[in-house]
Specification:
This protein is an alpha/beta fold and about 270 residues long. Helices cover about 40% and strands about 20% of the residues. The chain contains eleven helices and eight strands. The longest helix is centred in the first third of the chain and has 29 residues.
């Protein structure tokens, strides 16, 4: 009887835990802490479903790679993890002098993230930054993170021929059985990386090379309207919202398509 009660209690705990974690995620997504402009994109980015898919819970240490100046997911993850866990922004290098416009852009974006963390320290708990500016990659101690997440960034590192190094760093910093969550613009076969889209099979293969094994894929962030045979928009993926790189040219057409078709992949460190 005692064993039976123990088994029942364990089963109940496993059943309730995901619901509790999902409740916390939903509360963070619904919070007034978020900027209105960020929350307005929930219909395209599905944050609650995406974070639940990545098995995020409030007591975890979670590293987000390149949160960007908009701190879109940081506004959700930071408060979610503040009391029992820790949010870590793998940020641009903000030190030294920028040598060109590209470095200046990244540096200014990184400083905005730092300022946001400082301004909201009471809400964000132990939140901090580490450096991810390839070839400088300092994500933290080996086996120290429960989750590493990245949203629409892989193409940047691939274009700079740094994606392999980033995946290697992710594999080192994750705890065994930790999860690497990826959302990325999804290419059709034959598309160039210059379009900003990436082939899902290639992402999976590169992750596997570093011991990050695909355990699930989701269509949470798929967009069936973004299904052109080649997705050969004039300015690549940036033609679509939210960037709308063509400005007013064919704006209604691209707004009707919506944001890009995206893969959502969950890898585990073996």
């Amino acid at each position: 009887m005692k064993l039976l009660k123990t088994l029942i209690a364990a089963t109940l705990a496993l059943t309730l835990f995901p619901a509790s974690a999902n409740d916390a995620i939903n509360a963070a997504v619904s919070s007034d802490f978020r900027q209105e402009a960020n929350a307005a994109r929930d219909g395209a980015r599905h944050p609650a479903q995406t974070l639940s898919f990545f098995d995020i819970s409030p007591e975890m240490t979670v590293i987000e790679l390149w949160p960007g100046a908009s701190v879109w997911y940081a506004e959700i993850l930071g408060p979610l993890l503040a009391q029992k866990g820790q949010y870590i922004a793998a940020n641009f290098n903000t030190q030294g002098t920028a040598n060109n416009k590209s470095e200046e852009f990244y540096q200014q974006a990184g400083k905005k993230v730092e300022q946001w963390l400082s301004d909201n320290s009471a809400t964000l708990g132990k939140a901090k930054t580490v450096t991810l500016q390839p070839p400088v990659i300092e994500l933290g101690a080996d086996n120290s993170a429960d989750r590493v997440l990245t949203f629409r960034n892989l193409h940047n590192w691939q274009m700079d021929q740094q994606l392999d190094a980033v995946f290697a760093a992710v594999a080192k910093v994750l705890k065994p059985q930790g999860i690497f969550g990826v959302v990325e613009h999804r290419a059709n076969p034959g598309m160039s990386i210059d379009t900003g889209y990436m082939l899902q099979d290639e992402v999976i293969a590169l992750a596997a090379k570093h011991g990050l094994v695909l355990v699930a894929a989701s269509e949470i962030n798929a967009n069936p309207k973004d299904t052109k045979d080649t997705k050969d928009y004039p300015k690549g993926v940036w033609t679509l919202p939210p960037r709308l790189a063509l400005g007013e040219q064919d704006k209604d057409k691209y707004l009707a398509i919506g944001e890009s078709d995206r893969m959502t992949l969950k890898f585990v460190k073996k």
